[in-house]
Amino acid sequence: MNRKRNTTTFKRILSCISRYRLGVAASLICAAVTVVLTLYVPILIGYAVDCIVAPGNVDFNGMLVILKKIAVVAAFTAIAQWLMSHINNIITYRVVKDIRTQAFNRVESLPLKYIDSHQHGDLISRIIADIDQFSDGLLMGFTQLFTGVLTIIGTLIFMFFINPVIALVVVLITPVSLFVASFIAKRTYIMFQKQSLTRGTLTSLIDEMLGNQKIVQAFGYEDEAQKQFETINEELRVWGLKATFFSSITNPSTRFVNSLVYACVGIAGAFAAIKGVLTVGQLSSFLSYANQYTKPFNEISGVITELQNALASAARVFELIDEELEIPDAEDAIVLADAKGEIVLDHVDFSYEPEKSLIEDMNLLVEPGQRIAIVGPTGCGKSTVINLLMRFYDVNSGSIAVDGTDIRQMTRKSLRTNYGMVLQETWLKSGTIRENIAYGMPEATEDQIISAAKEAHAHSFIKRMPQGYDTVISEDGGNLSHGQKQLLCIARVMLCLPPMLILDEATSSIDTRTEIRIQKAFAKMMKGRTSFIVAHRLSTIKEAEVILVMKEGHIIEQGTHDSLLEKQGFYAELYNSQFAVAE
Predict the structure, then answer these.
(1) In this structure, are 79 and 187 located in the same domain?
(2) Which pLDDT tens digit goes with each residue over 115-128?
(3) Is the CB of residue 520 less than 8 Å from the CB of residue 454?
(4) Helix axis angle, 446-455 relative to 482-496, nearest 10°?
(5) At CA 245, angle to CA 243 and CA 248, rounded to 5?
(6) Average pLDDT of 234-258?
(7) Structural domain of residue 256, as residue ranges?
(8) Are the C-beta atoms of 135 and 103 separated by less than 8 Å?
(9) Any idea what the CATH number is for the domain that residue 196 is in?
């Protein structure tokens, strides 16, 4: 299974590299030039040795000419080697850039179901750490694998040219080195694969703990978090140690075999020189070739180890890239522009897990401009309805239509552009306050941004910031209070003012005084716009034209605030549980 997976991954890597075939060809040419010139030097050295005939009988003029040739060859070798390394660097980092871009684009296009069901830290680890590991292996492969293979082939050709019998001895011993390297490499890959998986789990835990440090400290979870970290970290240490052990014994093992090759060549060559089959210079050349022939096996064994790590990391990245995308927009999908806001839910069924039903046979007609409040206990399906309206998830059966058209026949972008969302969970990007307010309308003017901030009652606190609207806030608005972040999210929607609105606990993090002002702003904003208001505080939805009361995925009651109280049903029970004490 691993071999098949490795082969598939390797083919994918070659496919990624094929875009830069001209660079690869140039690198191969440079590698060939480097190897040929490097292998030419021992021949020149052999000629120089043969210039020393006996004590007092040395051809110095001949040696000088040979030394000049060696100097020129060495200079050209250095230039070719530098060019090869430079080209390899360019190819490697371009391939890595392409793969990282593919991975990020895939994450952007994955269905929300996949993102919700996978650890975010593991996804981050694949896009960053695993691709970095792949980059290191690919760079080493380019740098050493090409020259190593060419050196082996070149030295064999030169050795057979000098003496075929001794060259045959070298060839016969070579498979031992290959067997040792292959035996170790198989076990190394398994260890690196498990190391990569454990690293992703550890990254996920760290990301989770750092992102929720206040909760961790508030509930005294530090010791438990530390235990989890130490357990996973220990697993990472074990797999890392095993991977390092197997990878580290590859080089000594192949060196032992290579030393055996060198010794055999030396003994056979010495007997050949004694019999006059070889000159002393040819023997020195042959020994140099034997050393150069075995050297790439040490390098290639190290490359194989790195490639095992790179393949394990690349496989995880390609798994992410190959994940099934959300159902694409239909080819004839319409673009929803200036929606009137009529929404119809017709016999809608939906569940996140097939074996656990949630929303069953939901029917609803929303007239343009109506304010619809959705209330009910936690887990009843309120936020799920919002996910379905925005088409973050598709219904299992039934349909949702906007202005008479099934939303599955619209482009997702146009559908979502016609909605404005303010959620309980705020999201701000790293950047200026101005950029965050204008996130949905980058072309907005300064006056429009300030007007939206004033409508959201955010202008006063923004002006108190060090650089006002140019103040840079950290990732997810970490240097703002939760209420301030909520106000900026509200200002973002105030700026765009789309024809349909979704307010999911939009004022949950705002003080009562500001909430009264915001409710007035919302009332102005919702005028003439179809609006869905999800709320736990029932005092905030009294003015809604229709209140939907949900329980266990069903709409069990609907009507105005007063009519629902008169029914003395589930809504009245919820309302009285919140206000009975006050009354």
Answers:
(1) yes
(2) 777 777 778 878 88
(3) no
(4) 120
(5) 105
(6) 79
(7) 2-321
(8) no
(9) 1.20.1560.10
